[in-house]
Amino acid sequence: MVDATDWYEPGLAHIWRPYCQIKTADAPLPVVATEGSRITLADGRVLIDGIASWWTACHGYNHPVIAEALRKQLAQMPHVMFGGLVHEQALRLATRLCALVPGGFERVFFSDSGSIAVEVALKMAVQFWLNKGFAKRHKFLAFKGAYHGDTFATMAVCDPQEGMHSRFAGVLPQNIIADLPRDAETRVLFDALLTHHADDIAGIIVEPLVQGAGGMIFHDAEVLQHIRAAADRYGLILIFDEIFTGFGRTGTLFATEAAGVSPDIICLSKALTGGTMALAATLARPHIFDAFWSDDPGFALMHGPTFMANPLACAAANASLDLFESAPRLAEVKAIEAALTEGLAPCRDLAHVSDVRVKGAIGVVELAMPFDLEKLKRRFLELGVFIRPFGRIIYLTPAFTIEPEDLRRLTRAVVKVTSEMV
Fold first, then answer.
1. Closest of 121, 359, 108, 364 to residue 258, by C-alpha
2. Same domain membership, residue 78 and residue 167
3. pLDDT over 90 for what percent of the chain?
């Protein structure tokens, strides 16, 4: 047990917490330590983390390889601005990412969050057309069920009805929101939208294989192949938001591998540093970058986060990539997929469960109707697990290194709590 009286209550009076109505939400849990897939609270309780800190801690907490890389880099150079200067960690990381991500990417723009990585991608797409003399092409086609971030540009390509940002309706830029082209009917509608709006669209943005925070909605490679073909037909830029799916979460290192198609721009973050530091990357193929290569300074991409390519974060990312090379991470994901499929199967028999689905290290139980989320969270805590349901979704996205017994405890907790619902 750790005495938190001198910082917990005094600090709460000054913190604006994310994604909750602070007046009515349960108090947050004071964390004093992490290790592997465990979170230790100030009162001595130890929780099994079922969501890997919003899907980031793919190697588990406190991995010694990443910790050692951070210690070494901290002693050498914790930070230096990226304007007019570069450093080894960023250049090595950019080279490795371009080699790892399929599709012929050659340029990497670093930022410090997933929302900004997407914001940069949207900005690249719009300026691509501006630099080519097409001032009208500034809208995007996005999809129902999408979530791409919380900044203003990214909110405008999220699901406008079911997402978190409906409060801003009428304020955000207006884009075109379509159903994912899953079948003949939705493909006809999707193609008709493109035919009607093609001259105004800069690009199409999609989360490949899994729409994450919008509802853990799965789709197959054929959907992405249809979108890629349509983008090519109308000469549009295709953006893949792999912030959630990147780095093994769906079973391959990147979802684009399983899809068999490549976008023109791809966004990465979350597990990029193994869940240790804030870092994001927006990768572009050569034809995108070529539109900015000019003697005219006005053609440059005028964007530069203060902590862009932070050396500590880049060192953590390089160490994380080392682990993907040296450890059997994708085999671990395959084993997790099998365990989630078996462990969550009993939920299929419950009348108030509309679907159970698993892809890679993602397990989802979708309820037929919304439930009291705070009550669900409290019940999970009573069972010694940290799980954060949202909407009608109870999901697990554990660290790839989770112990089998800990994973069984997570799936048993989901089955038990779901079974208790009336």
1. 359
2. yes
3. 95
Please give the positions annotated as active site: 19, 147, 241, 270
What tens digit of pLDDT does each residue of 49-108 get? 999 999 999 999 999 999 999 999 999 999 999 999 999 999 999 999 999 999 999 999
Q: Does one domain contain both 119 and 43?
A: no
**DSSP structure string for 224-259:** HHHHHHHHHHHT-EEEEE-TTTTTTTTSSSSHHHHH
Q: Which helix (H) or strand (E) holds 71?
A: helix 64-76
pTM: 0.97
In a domain, 69, yes or no: yes
- Cα distance between residue 208 and residue 221, in whole Å: 8
State the pairing for strand pair 280-284/107-111: antiparallel
Q: What is the pLDDT of residue 162?
A: 75
Domain edge (last residue) among 294, 326, 358: 326
Boundary-marking domain end, from 326, 356, 371: 326
- Mean pLDDT along residues 153-173: 88
| Overall domain count for the chain | 2
Which residue range forms the structural domain that includes residue 353? 8-59+328-420
Question: pLDDT tens across 25-35, in order?
Answer: 999 999 999 99
Whether the predicted pLDDT of 347 surpasses 80:
yes
Q: Which two tokens stand for residue 356?
A: 């159970």
Q: Do residues 169 and 239 both lie within one domain?
A: yes
Q: Does 263 share its domain with 130?
A: yes
